[in-house]
């Protein structure tokens, strides 16, 4: 992931959806200032990004008020110690999305492209493709 400018702020990465929408991705560790991360997400949305995603640990994500993420297309994603991705919907309910060792950016792109119902199929097909490539190399 490469940092990108979003108005007066910098976000950690940018994903482009299938319809061409730009999604700003901000990643915060427990030692980082999460409030600053929320501000960067709002700055990205105001600067013309379609959506913004704040990715942090599950422990920090549980403590945040979900009302902040109900407005303006900002999403909250928490990652636990087993590398499972927990996405929060706008009502504050937590949805579990398994990565199974896959690239988290691929899963975020799939979630943000309005295909949450196909994430499991997406991950399985990518896993099968990866296994097929590695078996050919051997």
Structure description:
- The protein contains four helices and eight strands; from the N terminus they run ββββαβαβββαα.
- β1 (about 5) and β2 form a beta hairpin.
- The mean pLDDT is about 80.
- The strands form two sheets. It has a six-stranded mixed β-sheet, with helices on both faces. Strands 1-2 form a two-stranded antiparallel ribbon.
- The chain starts with a strand and ends with a helix.
- The chain is α/β, with parallel strands linked by helices and about 140 residues long.
- The radius of gyration is 15 Å and the shape is globular.
- It has helices at about 35-45, 60-65, 105-110, 120-135; strands at about 5, 10, 15, 20-25, 50-55, 75-80, 85-90, 95.
- The chain has one domain.
- Helices cover about 35% and strands about 25% of the residues.
């Amino acid at each position: 992931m490469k940092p990108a400018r979003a108005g007066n702020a910098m976000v950690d990465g940018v994903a482009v959806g299938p319809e061409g929408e730009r999604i700003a991705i901000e990643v915060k560790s427990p030692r980082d200032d999460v409030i600053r991360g929320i501000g960067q997400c709002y700055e990205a949305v105001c600067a013309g990004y379609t959506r913004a995603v704040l990715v942090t640990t599950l422990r920090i994500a549980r403590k945040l008020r979900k009302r902040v993420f109900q407005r303006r297309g900002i999403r909250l994603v928490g990652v636990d110690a087993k590398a499972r991705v927990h996405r929060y919907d706008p009502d504050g309910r937590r949805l579990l999305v398994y990565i199974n060792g896959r690239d988290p950016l691929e899963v975020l792109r799939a979630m943000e492209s309005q295909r949450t119902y196909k994430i499991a199929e997406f991950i399985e097909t990518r896993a099968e493709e990866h296994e097929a490539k590695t078996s050919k190399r051997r």
